[in-house]
Every structure is written in C-alpha cells, then in structure tokens.
Here is the input.
Amino acid sequence: MCEPDGQAFSERMFAAEDGLHLHLRDYHPGLDATGSRLPVIGLAGLTRNARDFHQLALILSQDAGTPRRVIALDYRGRGLSDRDDNKANYNILVEAQDVIHVCAGLGVDRAIFIGTSRGGLILHMLAAIKPDLLAAVVFNDIGPVIEAKGLMQIRDDLNSAIPPRDWDDAARMLQARHGADFPALSEQDWAEMANAIYREIDRRIIADVDPAIAAQLMTIDFEKPLPDLWSQFDALAGVPMMVIRGENSALLSETTVEEMVARHPAAKRVLAREQGHPPLLHLQPMTNEIMSFLASV
Here is the structure.
C-alpha cells in the first residue's frame, strides 16, 4: 500500500479505557502556524479509517493562510487500531467513548468534527454525552434517520465483495461497483479510494477492517423500522452545523435533510453533485464549502 505525503502527519497510538490500542493520524503544522484555531477531527464511515481524510487533511493542515491541525482516528477494529475480541463493542456508544478518551489524551477539549456516515452517528452520541467537545459539526451524508434501502446496499456490498488481485484491480472493482453514483470521480480518485479502503498484508490486498463489523449488518431485521436519533440531534441546537448530502445518496434522504435544517435553521446545507454515499470531501467545490464553514466558526 502506498503512503504518500507521510511526512505531513505523525502516527500515534492511544490505549482505550479497556486497554485496546487505537491508532490515529495527526496532521499538525505546529502551534506557531495554527495559533488559536480549533483543530478538526475526522471520523470515518462504518468500515473505513483515517486514510479517508488524507487528502482533505493535507489541504486543511497546509493551507497557506489558515492552517489547522487535523486529527483522523481509526476506530477499534479498523485500520491500524486493534481488533476487538468482544465484537459487541463495535457500536457507536463505545466508539464515541473512544473518541472522548483520545481527545482527552491529546489535550483537545473542543474541536470541529467532520463525521462521515458512521462518524456522523458517533457525533450524535457525543452530542448526548459530551456536548462541550463539539465546537461545530459537519455531517457528511448522514443524519438522524438512515434509509433502509441505503443500509441494505451497504450490507450487500460489504458482505459480497471479493479481494482484489492487485491495486489496479482494487480501483477497477470500486469503480465498477460505485461508478454510477460517482460520475465526478477520476481514475486517480478511485485509486486513492482503494488505498484508503484496502491494505496489503502478506502479499494479499484485503479490506482494512475486522470482518465482524460488516457481518453485524446481516443481523439487522429490515422488516422493523430503523431507530432514529432525533433526540440526540436536537442536543446540537446551539452548535454550528453543516449538512452535506451526496446527490445520488441512498442513505440520507432529502426529506431528512429538510427536517434537519428545519430543526437547526442556522445549518449550512450543501449538495455534493455527481457523488453518492459518502461524498469525497477533497473534491471541489466541497473543499471550498468546508473551508468557508470552518472560517465562520
């Protein structure tokens, strides 16, 4: 697996409260550069990891005028964090507690959070149990209501994927599965996505996640309504917010976005055109939208 621009970040490990080791990337331009600007913390999707934020983290941390510290976490069972022997710990409450613990270890008492998919669900938990940590939030194609159709698509995709033969094959497979929802992506974007999702271990390219996490989706009874998180969302009433929806997303509906904005009228609403679930945030105009939002906080 290629690791471009490795000099732009440091890799750190923290022990969770139960002793499990959690990995993160810290893109820190230095206190002299960042001054009093709030750090940005990136929380990735269900089976994804810190590498998802690499391109955006480079942009934000190396901005000539207003560089920011960017921290991207591998949840337990993802990326370079330890796999958990207790698979029941793969839930958003435990993962939110891990985020709180890591922030305390880093000395971060307030930050701007970007939550992609699962990361946005974790933000709902943080709003309920540690609201003071949230200086502002960006929901990337996620909200209090998850569309069953979109979650079933993710379930089927994760549990039917076969390992790629090589890195070129990994990018081609991703494009074949998701290209219709992401016409905005270039071949380079698909290659970078492959690098974020997969890791080469013992000469095999495999998804960089504990398989038990994808398997959990097989246990969901879709005959029953999925639980919502409106009460936790309402706890964010005074928190600056941006809501991003992929134009072709099946997970976050336009109806849910409208309700989010109705309950939080100051929220900035952005449509990621020609992208599905979840949108890549380092593509324009998404990067400019995020930087404008950060500047307003």
Remarks:
- The chain has eleven helices and ten strands.
- The two ends are 36 Å apart (CA to CA).
- The beta strands are 10-15, 21-27, 40-43, 70-73, 111-116, 134-140, 198-201, 204-207, 241-246, 268-272.
